[in-house]
Write a structure and sequence with these properties.
By secondary structure, this protein is α+β, with helices and mostly antiparallel strands.
Length: about 1000
């Protein structure tokens, strides 16, 4: 079986190599060493598998020669000579030999350098790059970009300019106009090419690539770009050294050479752009940029470098769109001549070295004459947080490109702005995007009449029309008319979720989404089934994703780009590696069956690889750990061993229940003066201690203790037997699962992967988009319902009533009076006599769905749980109120009914029937000073013995009810305060908007 090189494995190996170099230098320096080794390994492997490779690997100049130097005392010097031979043979002097591998200040001296470089070369030796281009997938190019991204992150502001994020490069490449019709002999040029990633992304948009030109002033970065071109199969790209503005290399006399396309991400606002400037090469025909800001110098250089029908896309700071004086004059001239086709505003914090937002200015000479407008896109809101930076998602890229290239006008996102509007004196050729596109979300207007008189404004309900269109029966099920312009909820707020999920027609929408995915997958199943070693994964996912995007366009409620993103995320996380694995196996003469064959896990400390096994068979030293890359064991089990898994689940539940019974029995009797007290040692008990004490008890103890010990031992034995049965069943199922892989046919494997893994997972992801939308509806309806649930008058009435109730109970609570009929003194009792103590188990599980809106049901996983709310009809607390007690760290505050808790250390305390009231005990226990944070099990050894005074049960209930009224009063006061703030906001909004928002008589 071939183990295809996964992106994740390659990335971790490359970054492990960087780890070897940290300490002696910063990222801007050690990138040279890592990327040089990456280059040496790549060209060596490619020369072995490709006789037509344009890079000659001479004798004594290969990566294999570097690996042979491992452990040599002169390893650094040998590395330099080997790299030098390859550089000499390919005219790559001062390109691939920039890093000095014999530099003791950076790499250490003597044995330190010897060990470091030996480990470094070993990491690369285990990687096989020979097939990456043959697969039609640019795995090495992606790895290079991965390293560049991390180097840019670590290098800080001063060194981050050498890398343009790949996602931004993709946008620039796609909006500049390069496409399937672009010929290989057409030219693309980058005047500030950096490491070359933007040029490569642009050229990759053409079906057979393009003729590449570039210039970069930084010597080391220029060398990186030359290596990058070779790693991407563009050995003939012409990348020149020098300052593009003061010393352009691509010239014809005093004029610049011209190209079909220009892409560029120049340094932002270069203050020294004109230092040494002599000849202007005709670039400043439309005005000279200010001396202290070079943004327009690069933009004009791009314009002048275009052929008469050429197009350019340049990344620049937003200031170029609106700054005045010299830049304003240049912008006016460019607009009057029709050179600016469009402007795309990008999110802030995308680039390394700066957090400011940038834009893409698209120039077009071909259609300049007669241009009547500028197409603008405000894409500033579409991104995802990725560490300290923001990053464009696949859906953001696709939406930007679709919108710009098809000139689609979308409210609050894009529009064609007429030149007459731009030239209007009030705008004066200012291109600042917010002048023309208001991308802000509509203000959530509060309704004064609704706050005062009740009801939900119909305008808020009508604003949710896209939901009512998709779920046609839901609107009438939830709302009914109240008065003109207002409606009321027909159901309780707690029921909104249930109606939306189960009584709205949601099943029809789910069925529609499922059918779309089914039809889409059926259309492409043949292509996926017939993968070959020559399949191009990039083209494959483009065809799949574009088709899915189109199919989801007519679906109500759903955004087709959200569905598209689900596929792209799955591709990056799972499907790409699966496809690469099958392709690699086919390339080596294998098939789907051999691709699915289990392999032993890789544990390689030097490469920082320590795989988590998917399946373990055997025990102790005979245990074997397996990885199933293509077909996970869970898929085999669900398809072929469902009944065995069900039996195993039952055994697991039985084992957990048996363990719970032990804990419950111990908690009840292993207390001071309890039946198991004599068996305890250091406040602990186990079977061994119980057996020892039983032998002694038979000589000198009573029957009750003997019976208790015997019962405990029986419980221990039952729990041990249950765990053993579950363990044996698990081992048997794992072994059967492993054996099943050997019996799978090619049809079996293909069906498992295509139909059950890919198709099944993608259907689930598409349905998750539906769930997200419905959850948003639930949240909004709940928000509106809560906002207008009570009027100011009803809150005031409630406050008056609660104030009277509290005042009436003060005598009882202060001890000045007792309840009628009660005169006996309060009893003093230990907590163990008032509360039972137990560990929560699986019997608490009802559902695992959690929503941001509404109440959260009980959720448990073994002994870790989230407590359900008291008004949740599915939770345990409605009928069985509890106190939650952190047995180990002992919080100062107990968890009551309306609080969520999650900790395996939590225990449940229940009121003993006929003795105590749980609400009274909750209040009473908060007055006890518990020991904090000493991580011991205190209930058994200490807290259960604490004695407290308590009145009779009926009086406990009355006192608890009276105390609860303080909470109710506080809550009502907070609600009234919130209502006043809402009224203030509603009034202010009416004033600001200059007109009443609703009809009212107030």
């Amino acid at each position: 079986m071939t183990v295809a090189l996964k992106k994740s494995d390659l990335y971790s190996s490359l970054w492990a190599s960087a780890d070897q170099l940290r300490g002696g230098m910063d990222a801007s320096q050690y990138k040279d060493y890592v990327l040089t080794l990456l280059f040496m390994k790549y060209v060596t492997d490619k020369a072995k598998s490709d006789p037509d490779s344009l890079i000659e690997v001479p004798e004594g100049g290969s990566f294999d020669d570097m690996f042979a130097a491992k452990g040599d005392k002169e390893i650094g010097d040998r590395f330099n000579k080997i790299i030098g031979k390859l550089a000499e043979a390919n005219d790559l002097r001062n390109v691939i030999d920039q890093a000095d591998f014999n530099e003791p200040e950076k790499l250490g001296s003597g044995k330190e350098m010897q060990d470091r470089l030996s480990k470094l070369v070993t990491i690369f030796n285990d990687l096989d790059f020979s097939g990456s281009r043959a697969e039609g997938d640019d795995l090495l190019g992606d790895a290079y970009e991965y390293l560049m991204r991390h180097f840019a992150t670590e290098s800080g502001k001063s060194k981050g300019q050498f890398y343009t994020p790949a996602e931004v490069s993709r946008v620039v490449a796609k909006v500049v106009g390069i496409g399937r019709q672009t010929r290989q002999d057409e030219t693309v040029y980058d005047a500030a090419s950096g490491s070359g990633s933007l040029l490569l992304k642009a050229a990759a948009e053409a079906p057979r690539g393009m003729t590449i030109y570039g210039q970069e002033k930084d010597n080391v970065t220029w060398a990186l770009s030359k290596m990058n071109m070779i790693l991407h199969g563009n050995e003939t790209a012409e990348i020149y050294k020098g300052n593009t503005i003061t010393d352009p290399q691509l010239t014809n006399g005093t004029r610049l050479k011209t190209f079909d396309y220009v892409v560029m991400n120049p340094p932002f606002s270069d203050k020294a752009w004109s230092n040494g400037l002599g000849e202007d090469y005709g670039r400043f025909e439309y005005g000279r940029p200010p001396e202290k800001n070079g943004d327009y110098a690069f933009l004009l250089h791009a314009l002048t470098s275009l052929k008469s029908g050429g197009k350019a896309a340049v990344i620049l700071p937003h200031g170029v769109l609106f700054r005045g004086n010299a830049e304003g004059n240049i912008r006016r001239e460019l607009l009057k001549h029709g050179f600016i086709k469009g402007v795309i505003g990008l999110p802030a914090n995308l680039f390394y070295g700066t957090g400011i937002p940038a834009c893409i200015v698209v120039l077009d000479k071909e259609n300049a004459v007669g241009r009547t407008g500028v197409f603008m896109v405000d894409a500033s809101k579409g991104f995802i947080k990725d560490g300290a930076k923001n990053r464009l998602r696949d859906q953001d890229i696709h939406r930007i490109v679709d919108t710009f290239n098809k000139q689609i006008e979308i409210d609050r996102y894009s529009r064609m702005v007429p030149m007459s509007e731009i030239a209007d004196p009030k705008n004066d050729y200012n291109l600042n995007i917010p002048r023309y596109i208001d991308s802000s979300e509509p203000e959530d207007l509060q309704d004064l009449s609704a706050h005062l008189n009740g009801g939900i404004p119909n305008r808020d309900i009508e604003a949710l029309q896209k939901y009512w269109d998709a779920l046609p029966s839901l609107k009438d099920a939830l709302f009914e008319p109240l008065r003109e312009g207002y409606s009321s909820l027909k159901v309780e707020l707690s029921e909104v979720q249930d109606y939306a999920l189960h009584r709205s027609g949601l099943d029809s929408l789910r069925a529609q989404v499922t059918a779309i995915v089914d039809e889409w997958f059926a259309a492409h199943r043949g292509t996926l089934l017939n993968l070959t070693a020559e399949t191009k994964p990039g083209d494959l996912i483009t065809a799949l994703s574009d088709d899915l995007l189109e199919r989801f366009k007519p679906v109500p409620l759903l955004n087709e780009y959200d569905a598209y993103q689900q596929l792209m995320t799955y591709w990056h996380d799972v499907m790409h590696d699966d496809v690469s694995l099958v392709m690699a196996e086919l390339a080596s003469g294998g098939d789907w069956v051999s691709a699915a064959k289990p392999r032993q896990t890789i544990e390689d400390k030097e490469r920082n690889l320590n795989e988590t096994p998917d399946l373990e068979v055997g025990t102790g030293r005979k245990k074997t750990k397996y990885k199933m890359d293509l077909v996970p064991p869970a898929l085999i089990v669900s398809r072929y061993f469902a009944s065995e898994q069900a039996e195993l689940d039952e055994l697991g539940a039985a084992a957990e229940e048996a363990t719970r019974l032990v804990e419950e029995y111990v908690d009840e009797h292993a207390v001071e003066n309890g039946l198991l007290a004599e068996a305890m040692e250091d406040d602990k008990i186990n079977k061994g201690l119980a057996v020892t004490r039983l032998r002694e008890a038979k000589r000198d103890a009573g029957d009750d203790e003997i019976n208790a010990l015997q019962q405990l031992i029986r419980l221990y034995d039952a729990a041990s037997a249950a765990r053993k049965a579950a363990k044996e069943a698990r081992a048997a199922l794992d072994l059967d699962t492993l054996k099943k892989y050997g019996n799978l046919t090619e049809g079996d494997v293909a069906s498992l992967v295509l139909d059950y893994k890919w198709h099944g997972d993608l259907t689930g992801r598409a349905l998750a988009v539906v769930e997200t939308q419905v959850n948003m509806l639930i949240a909004r309806v709940s928000q509106l319902g809560q906002r207008y649930a009570e009027t100011l008058d009803s809150l005031d009435e409630r406050l008056t009533m609660l104030n009277n109730d509290v005042a009436g109970n003060l005598a009882l609570l202060t001890g000045d009076a007792r309840l009628p009929g009660f005169s006996e003194p309060w009893k003093k009792m230990p907590l163990s006599a008032l509360l039972s103590y137990e560990q929560p188990g699986r019997y608490l599980v009802t559902t695992t769905r959690q929503l941001e809106s509404g109440r959260t049901p009980v959720l448990t996983a073994g002994k870790t749980f989230i407590l359900g709310y008291t008004n949740d009809p599915h939770g345990i607390c409605t009928t069985h109120p509890l106190i939650i007690f952190d047995d180990f760290t002992t919080a100062t505050q107990f968890v009551d009914f309306d609080f969520k808790a999650k900790s395996s250390a939590m225990k449940l305390l229940r009121a003993r029937p006929g003795v105590s009231d749980v609400r009274f005990m909750f209040e009473r226990m908060q007055l006890i000073e518990f020991v904090l944070g000493d991580h011991k099990r205190h209930w058994i050894s200490q807290y259960s013995k604490i004695e407290v005074t308590v009145p009779p049960l009926d009086e406990q209930i009355a006192i608890a009810k009276a105390l609860a009224q303080f909470d109710e009063l506080t809550e009502a006061l907070e609600l009234r305060r919130a209502k006043l703030l809402d009224l203030k906001r509603a009034s202010a909004q009416r004033v600001v908007h200059g007109a009443p928002q609703e009809k009212s008589n107030e």
